[in-house]
Amino acid sequence: MSDLKSTPLEAEHQAAGATLTGFGGWLMPLRYTSDLAEHRAVREAAGLFDLSHMGEIHLEGRQAAAALDHALVGNATSIAVGRARYSMLCAEDGSVLDDLIVYRLGEVHFLVVANAGNAELVSRELVARAADFDVAVTDRSATTALIAVQGPRAEQIVAELTAPDDVETLRGLPYYAAAPVTLSTGARALAARTGYTGEDGFELFVDRDDAGVLWRAALTVGEPHGLVPAGLAARDSLRLEAGMPLYGHELDTTTTPYEAGLGRVVRLDKVHDDGASVEFVGRAALAARKASPPARVLVGLRGEGRRSARAGYDVVTPAGTRAGTVTSAAPSPTLGYPIAMAYVTPEVSAEGTALAVDVRGRHEPFTVVSLPFYRRPTA
C-alpha cells in the first residue's frame, strides 16, 4: 500500500485501530469497530467521516459561471451564492466522467468537489474546458481536508464545534448550502450541509494542517451524543440504503445520466445572455439519448430471502433469462433484508416485478422497488 496517498488523518485512524484499505488511490479507514455498529450509529446518533481524499477544485473569475456551464451538464449560472448543486462532468459521447457537487462561494467563485479516484481527471478537464474563459482554475485538493459529521445529532455536535458568533449561521444552513464559519478550535472552515448517508449532516472543509485538531475535538464533543468514527464500509451501506449512486458502480464511462435515473441534472435548456443555447460538452449526445428509448434502467431490488447479492452478479427473470447486472448490494442493517441496485432491461423495470439474482449458481428472489430504500424520519 506504499503507493497510496495518505490523508492528514492517517495517524488518527491508526491510533483508533482502524482497518485501512486502498480506495480511489488513497489509504482510507474501512472500519474502526464493526460495519454494523458504525452504520447504526449514523442512523441513530452520528458518525464522523474522513473525506479528505475528495478533490477540491476552485474556479474564480468573471466568467467562472459561464465556464462551468460549458464544462458540466448543469446550470451553474442559476446557483445562488451560498448554495450547492449536484452535477456531472460528461464526455462528448454523454458518458459520465464523474459526478460532483458544485458550491457557489461568491458571485465569481465556485468550488467543485470531485470523487477521489477522478479528482485529477476532473481538474484536468476543467482546466481544458475553461481555457477560453476569463477564469482561474486552481486544484486545492492537496491542501484541503474534509471532515463530515452525519446523523440525527449532527447539527447539535457541529454547533458545539462552531464558534458562538457563527452557530446561528451553521444551524440556519438549508440542505445543499454552505457558509464560512470559525470553529471552536480557532480554525476557519467552509461548512456545507449536503451528505451521502441519507441523514442530516455537515461537511467541514479546513486547511490540511487543521484536520487533526478538528478530528480530535469532534470526537470529544460528540462522544456524549453517541458519535463514533465511521469507515468506508458503513458509508457504502448508508448511501446504498439512501439510493445514492457511487462512481464506478452505478455511474461510469459506459453510462449516461439518463440510464441512472439522473436526467434531471442535465440542463439542455441552458442559454447565454443573448438567448443562444449553451453548447456544453456532451450536449448533442445527451439530447439524442433523452429522445431515445432506454436500453437499460437503474432500479432498486429488495431481497425476499436472506442471501445478499454482490456487484457484478446477474439479474435474471423467473424463467432464467438474463435481464441485467447488479451494481451495488448489501444486507440492509436498517431495514433487515438484502437490498441492491441494478441495471435491468426496461420490460422488467416496473415496481413490483419479481426477479432473481444469480448468487453463486442459486437464483435468489428479489423484487423491483422504488428508490431510495430508506428515507430519514421527518420531524
From TrEMBL:
UniProt domain Aminomethyltransferase C-terminal: residue ranges:
296-374
Which InterPro entries does the record associate with it? GcvT (IPR006223), GcvT/YgfZ/DmdA (IPR028896), GcvT/YgfZ_C (IPR029043), GcvT_bac (IPR022903), GcvT_C (IPR013977), GCVT_N (IPR006222), TrmE/GcvT-like (IPR027266)
Q: What GO annotations for molecular function exist for this entry? A: aminomethyltransferase activity; transaminase activity
* Gene Ontology CC annotations of this record: cytosol; glycine cleavage complex
* Domain of life (superkingdom): Bacteria
Going by the UniProt record, its keywords in alphabetical order are: Aminotransferase, Transferase
Q: Tell me which residues bind substrate.
A: E203
As recorded in UniProt, its EC number(s) are 2.1.2.10
Nucleus among the record's keywords?
no
Pfam families named in the record: GCV_T, GCV_T_C
Q: Which GO terms describe its biological process?
A: glycine decarboxylation via glycine cleavage system
Q: Where is the signal peptide?
A: none
UniProt subunit comment? The glycine cleavage system is composed of four proteins: P, T, L and H.
Role summary: The glycine cleavage system catalyzes the degradation of glycine.
UniProt similarity note: Belongs to the GcvT family.
Q: Indicate what this protein is called per its UniProt record.
A: Aminomethyltransferase
Native species: Xylanimonas cellulosilytica (strain DSM 15894 / JCM 12276 / CECT 5975 / KCTC 9989 / LMG 20990 / NBRC 107835 / XIL07)
**Taxonomic classification, please?**
Bacteria, Bacillati, Actinomycetota, Actinomycetes, Micrococcales
Q: What gene is this protein translated from?
A: gcvT
